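Same chain as my last thread, 177 residues:
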Amino acid sequence: MLYFITGNKFKFREVQQFFPDIEQLKIDLPEIQEIDAKKIIENKLQTALQHHDGPFIIEDTSLYLSCLNGLPGPLGKWFEQVLGDQKLSEICVQLGDTKARCTTIIGYAQNAADVHFFDGTIEGDLVRPRGDRSFGFNSIFQPKGMNKTFGEMTIEEKNRISMRGIALQKLKTYLQQ
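reply #2:
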């Protein structure tokens, strides 16, 4: 049985599209504040292994804004909570640079000695909010070459092209080998 340690129901639903039998574990893991997203995942994996045996996955998504020299990065959740999606997009517009990059890193642990990482990245722009605003920066991130924000896409559309979808596909391929 594969477990996904998250309290985020939106992320869990997206992961279920790739792994229908996955179980959600709601373990409140401390999140170190760090600019390197992989260090955050490594720390969460080590902490999670103290609470639960594998196999399980942990995920972290980062938002890198060109106009802020890569901030907020893995601190995106906190920026979004404090500023909101509207303000984040306004900052980019006011600074004249809406280019953004989203990266998801998935940490997979079978046990403490068997840990792997899978990532996915997508380029795009931050735009004024459009679509569903209930999940992070989905309503303001418009992938390059697309005319919809993640918030305007169905879960299936988003999973085909998103940073999380790319990382999950890599994990799925690894687990099928």
